[in-house]
Every structure is written in structure tokens, then in C-alpha cells.
């Protein structure tokens, strides 16, 4: 039972940790659900045409904001991840954070042209920063800015988000290209705007950033990884099944006298086979349930102790992780049934009562 | 009750034909104690297995209540062994994870009063203070008496005993046979190599090299 339990724990653990990566992608960049982004590609003179293009949008646009962006790094379980520091004008800051589902919890918004930034609670927790700390520094190659960019405000809410002064980023950061942040009146229209922008700007000198494209890219990125995972889990199930088949064979061998005696005194072979398979199935199912409970508990502890404090994501109730472990009990029960059938195929109770088998 | 007509049993051992029983004809009548006497390897156990339906004769036939065993399927034959026959084997096989009482109940677990009857039988057989003991806590003689109780609990019409005294000393062996005789109203077919164990038998068959069965009328 312990073997089954550990196998379930192992498989559910691997799948859950693997799933935590795309889950983290979707969570960390979840703010982009509320924004359609567009920027010139290769030619910044294309920007006025880009603006005109969106003015012709068949989808209603609630507000268009001209912004700048700078990349800095947040931490993830697979190393540093790029994250966007948006340069937003002070007249738009309140609107943007409200659309993203955040509100100012501590401090204030950045002053125009000043090296100041506002970050959400999740970003602050991930980086271990608080009000007054520096987000970007001149001596930090990965999170560089010519001046120390201090955190002047913390946003409350579930999304990850960071912004600075539009004027400061325009004056001090590369690339010197503006970005359009487009907001539709609601989520349905936002998805329509995403689709229209992607379709209408395909093969144009513009880059479009949307949440659906992030979803597609994430799925595509992890497709190969999950194929490899399928092979690994398949091998694991095969090894465990062979091992369990051998263990069940040994177990039946140890009880062969019992089965011989019972058959000799009048128990039918069918009843004994059913009994042996039922006992094996009971052990396997019980082991699987215990394995699922143990995996759930372990993943919950990992989430609580390792992931959550660092702003990482892991879902202890990830049904896919437990679904991946289902082939284990099924394969073992099939192996047990075949083993039992094989042992009883030519079983002669007289060989037991005559002590030819003992 | 049980009739064997020209029953022969041949089996193959390492490519060699072994004639365990040759052309045996005998009858076991209701309520009688039939002893089968013979040295080791003479075929007496094989004869017992044929008479109880555990093995089919290679030639000839064995009938119980007029019906040939070979006409019964596995379920019907198993049911016959469970409901109408009782078995005591040479080794006192008991299930190690069940108590003495539970081992006895095993042979009649579908009866509502099985526990009461098992307790009564064990008391009668002198094991009243061992009811809840596990097999590992019982002596060889005590285990064999539990096996006798297990054979008797379903009130079988026939008890088949295959060298039930072999693992016991003489006094223990005599006690087991006496208990079987005293507490079983139906037929008793007992195989042994020890003539002293058949003192109470109504009839004794001698078997030698499986080739012939000689009736020794007592």
C-alpha cells in the first residue's frame, strides 16, 4: 500500500509542480486580461498610423493610453521572469489601476518625471520589497535604471502590476518607442478588441499584446514538456505495475496454503479468485486514496511554505495532477487480476493438502 | 452412499505414468466408519480424493447419492464438499489470522448460529478455554481438534480424514479418532498407515501399490 501511496504522491507532485509554471504565467501576467497592447515593430514612425488604426476599431474603446514600458525581473520557480514596468501618465494612473482591479493601499502615485514606482502587493511580496525600497537601481544589471527608482505606493488586489511615471521612462529608458494601452468597456469587448487587433494587424509593422495570445503561447511552450511528462508518467506506471504484479505474486504465494485449504473444503475457485482480486483492489484503492490525501497535504504545505511567500503559484487541488495518477491503481488492479488468474489457472488444492506446496 | 466402480487414477510425474489407483470398486454406506489402510505411497490418499470428488478417476466412475461426480460442475462439486462433506487433513491447516472459533465458523459461515455451534463443538472437543486463541498459540493436537470441529460444524453426511493422526503421538491420535467417531453421526472415511487407529472401524480396506483393494472384514 505504501508503494502505491508513494507512487501517487510522486506523480501528483510532479504534475502539480509542472502545472505550477503555466499557472504562474497566467497569474503573473493576468493583468493583461484587462488591456490590449500595441506598439510599432521596427519602425517607430508607424505609431501615428497605429493610433489611427485603432480609431477605426469596430469594437468600442473606452480609453486609449500612450505609455512606455521597461522590463525588470520577478522571481519564479524556474528563475527570473521578465515583468513589465509600465510608464503611465499621472492623468491615467487612477483609471488603469481601477481597470486592472487594483486600488492604492499605501503611499501615493509617482510624480511626473520622478524616479518613482508603484507596485502591487504580489510583486512586492515576490521581490521582498516594501515602501521606500528601490525597484530599479543603477548598480543592478538586471533591474537597471540610471537613477534609483523608489517604491512610493503599494497597490491592493490579486493582480501583479507595476507602473512608473511615463515622463521618467521616456526620458531615461530604451527603447524610445511608445506603446498603446487600449481599454474596452468590459471583458467581452476586451476579448473582441484583442481578436480584432490581432487579425487586423497581422503582418503589419506592429506588435499586438493580448491575454489570449499569452494563453496560446503558454500552451504551445509547455506542450512538448507535457508530452515528455506523459512518457515519464507512462514509464513510472509501467515500472510500478510490474513491481506490484511481482509483489502480489509473492503475496499470493504466501497465502497459497490458505487458498488450497479453502478450495479443498468447498470454496469455489471463482469465489477465491474474486476474494483475492477484491483484496488486491481494496489495498490498491485504499493506497490511491491515501496517496491523493498525502499528495494534497504535501502540496498544500509546499504552497504554504515555499510557493506562496515567494509569490509563486501551485494548486494543491489541481485535478489534472490527481487524474495523472489514476492509471496507477487501474494498471495495478489489472496486473493483480492477471496474476491471480495465472496463479489459479492450474491450481490444484490437493498439492497444498498433500504438502507438495507449503 | 458413495460408490466407486472400477475406478483408476493415473497421473504423470516428470514424464512418467504413475498408477495411483487401479480398478478399485468399493462402497461407503451411510453412518459407517470405513478405514483405508496402507503404507506411504500406496495410493490410499488418491483413493480418498476420488471418493470425495477432489479428483476425477482416469477410468471408471465414482458416484455420490447415485450421481457421478463428473456430471457436476465446479460450483456444484464445491457446494457438495462444503455442505455435505467434512475434511480433516494430515496437517492441521488453520488460517493464521483467525481465532480457533473463527476457523471453525469458516466452514459454515452462512449459518446464523455458526458461532454458537462452533463454540459448542470446541467445548465438546475440550477446547473451551482456547476459543479465542490464535493457531500459533495452540499445540499440534489442539490444532487438529480445531480441524475436527471445522469438519463437523456443518453436520456433514460424510467426513473424509486423510492421515489425521500422522502429526500426533499415539494417545493424541486415538483421541482424535474417538472424537470423530463420537461426535459424527454420518459416514467416516479415514485413511491411515497405522492399523491401531482403525480399531473402531466398521470395515477396513487395505491398499497396496494402488493395484488392488482388499476388503478385510472385521
Outline the secondary-structure elements:
The complex is a heterodimer of chains A (358) and B (218).
Chain A: H1 2-28, E1 36-40, H2 47-55, E2 63-76, E3 79-88, H3 90-99, E4 103-107, E5 116-120, H4 121-127, E6 134-136, E7 149-156, E8 162-165, H5 166-172, E9 179-183, H6 187-200, E10 206-209, H7 211-254, H8 256-265, H9 269-307, H10 319-324, H11 327-345, H12 349-353
Parallel strand pairs in A: 3-8, 5-7
Antiparallel strand pairs in A: 1-9, 1-10, 2-3, 2-9, 4-7, 5-8, 6-7
Helix pairs in contact in A: 1-7, 1-9, 7-11, 9-11
Chain B: E1 2-13, E2 16-28, E3 33-37, H1 44-51, E4 59-64, E5 67-68, H2 74-83, E6 85-88, H3 100-105, H4 114-124, H5 140-152, E7 158-162, H6 170-183, E8 187-192, E9 203-208, E10 212-217
Describe what this molecule looks like in 3D:
The complex is a heterodimer of chains A (358) and B (218). Chain A is α+β, with helices and mostly antiparallel strands and 358 residues long. Chain A is 55% helix and 18% strand. Chain A has helices at 2-28, 47-55, 90-99, 121-127, 166-172, 187-200, 211-254, 256-265, 269-307, 319-324, 327-345, 349-353, and strands at residues 36-40, 63-76, 79-88, 103-107, 116-120, 134-136, 149-156, 162-165, 179-183, 206-209. In chain A, helix 1 (2-28) runs antiparallel to helix 7 (211-254) and helix 9 (269-307) runs antiparallel to helix 11. Chain A is elongated. In chain B, the strands form two sheets. Chain B has a six-stranded mixed β-sheet. A four-stranded antiparallel β-sheet of chain B has the order 2-1-4-5, covered by helices on one side. Chain B is globular. Chain A binds chain B through residues 257-258, 261-271, 349-350, 352-355, and chain B through 45, 49, 54-55, 74-75, 78-83, 85, 87, 89-91, 93, 95, 106-107, 150, 162.
Amino acid at each position: 500500500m505504501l508503494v502505491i501511496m508513494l507512487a501517487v504522491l510522486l506523480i501528483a507532485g510532479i504534475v502539480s509542480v509542472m502545472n505550477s509554471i503555466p499557472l504562474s504565467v497566467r497569474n503573473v501576467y493576468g493583468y493583461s486580461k484587462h488591456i490590449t497592447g500595441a506598439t510599432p515593430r521596427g519602425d517607430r514612425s508607424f505609431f501615428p498610423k497605429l493610433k489611427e488604426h485603432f480609431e477605426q476599431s469596430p469594437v468600442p474603446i473606452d480609453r486609449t493610453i500612450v505609455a512606455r514600458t521597461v522590463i525588470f525581473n520577478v522571481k519564479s520557480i524556474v528563475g527570473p521572469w521578465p515583468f513589465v514596468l509600465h510608464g503611465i501618465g499621472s492623468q491615467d494612473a487612477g483609471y488603469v489601476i481601477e481597470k486592472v482591479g487594483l486600488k492604492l493601499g499605501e503611499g501615493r502615485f509617482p510624480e511626473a518625471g520622478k524616479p518613482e514606482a508603484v507596485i502591487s502587493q504580489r510583486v512586492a511580496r515576490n521581490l521582498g520589497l516594501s515602501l521606500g525600497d528601490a525597484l530599479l537601481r543603477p548598480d543592478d544589471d538586471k533591474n537597471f535604471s540610471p537613477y534609483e527608482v523608489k517604491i512610493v505606493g503599494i497597490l491592493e488586489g490579486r493582480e501583479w502590476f507595476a507602473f512608473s511615471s511615463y515622463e521618467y521612462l521616456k526620458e531615461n529608458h530604451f527603447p524610445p518607442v511608445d506603446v498603446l494601452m487600449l481599454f474596452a468597456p468590459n471583458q467581452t469587448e476586451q476579448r473582441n478588441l484583442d481578436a480584432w487587433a490581432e487579425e487586423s494587424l497581422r503582418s503589419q509593422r506592429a506588435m499586438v499584446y493580448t491575454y489570449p495570445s499569452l494563453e496560446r503561447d503558454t500552451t504551445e511552450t509547455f506542450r512538448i514538456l507535457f508530452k515528455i511528462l506523459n512518457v515519464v508518467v507512462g514509464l513510472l506506471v509501467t515500472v510500478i505495475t510490474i513491481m506490484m504484479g511481482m509483489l502480489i505474486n509473492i503475496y499470493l504465494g504466501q497465502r497459497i496454503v490458505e487458498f488450497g485449504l479453502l478450495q479443498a473444503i468447498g470454496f469455489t475457485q471463482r469465489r477465491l479468485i474474486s476474494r483475492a482480486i477484491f483484496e488486491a483492489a481494496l489495498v490498491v484503492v485504499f493506497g490511491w486514496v491515501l496517496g491523493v490525501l498525502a499528495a494534497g497535504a504535501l502540496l498544500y504545505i509546499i504552497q504554504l511554505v515555499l510557493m506562496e511567500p515567494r509569490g509563486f503559484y501551485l494548486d494543491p487541488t489541481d485535478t489534472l495532477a490527481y487524474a495523472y495518477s489514476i492509471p496507477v491503481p487501474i494498471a495495478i488492479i489489472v496486473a493483480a487480476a492477471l496474476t491471480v488468474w495465472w496463479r489459479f489457472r492450474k491450481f490444484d488444492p490437493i498439492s497444498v493438502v498433500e504438502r507438495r506446496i507449503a | 452412499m458413495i460408490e466407486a466402480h472400477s475406478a483408476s487414477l493415473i497421473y504423470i510425474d516428470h514424464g512418467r505414468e504413475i498408477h495411483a489407483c487401479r480398478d478399485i470398486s468399493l462402497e461407503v454406506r451411510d453412518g459407517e466408519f470405513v478405514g483405508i489402510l496402507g503404507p506411504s505411497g500406496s495410493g490410499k490418499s488418491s483413493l480418498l480424493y476420488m471418493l470425495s470428488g477432489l479428483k476425477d478417476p482416469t477410468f471408471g466412475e465414482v458416484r455420490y447419492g447415485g450421481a457421478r461426480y463428473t456430471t457436476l460442475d465446479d460450483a456444484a462439486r464445491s457446494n457438495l464438499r462444503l455442505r455435505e462433506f467434512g475434511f480433516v487433513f494430515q496437517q492441521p491447516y488453520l488460517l493464521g489470522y483467525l481465532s480457533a472459533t473463527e476457523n471453525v465458523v469458516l466452514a459454515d459461515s452462512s449459518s446464523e448460529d455458526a458461532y454458537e455451534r462452533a463454540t459448542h463443538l470446541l467445548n465438546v472437543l475440550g477446547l473451551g478455554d482456547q476459543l479465542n486463541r490464535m493457531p500459533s498459540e495452540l499445540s499440534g493436537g489442539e490444532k487438529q481438534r480445531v480441524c475436527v470441529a471445522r469438519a463437523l460444524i456443518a453436520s456433514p453426511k460424510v467426513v473424509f480424514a486423510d492421515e489425521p493422526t500422522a502429526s500426533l503421538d499415539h494417545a493424541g491420535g486415538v483421541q482424535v479418532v474417538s472424537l470423530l467417531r463420537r461426535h459424527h453421526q454420518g459416514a467416516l472415511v479415514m485413511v491411515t498407515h497405522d492399523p491401531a487407529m482403525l480399531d473402531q472401524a466398521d470395515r477396513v480396506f487395505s491398499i497396496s501399490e494402488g493395484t488392488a483393494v482388499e476388503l478385510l472384514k472385521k
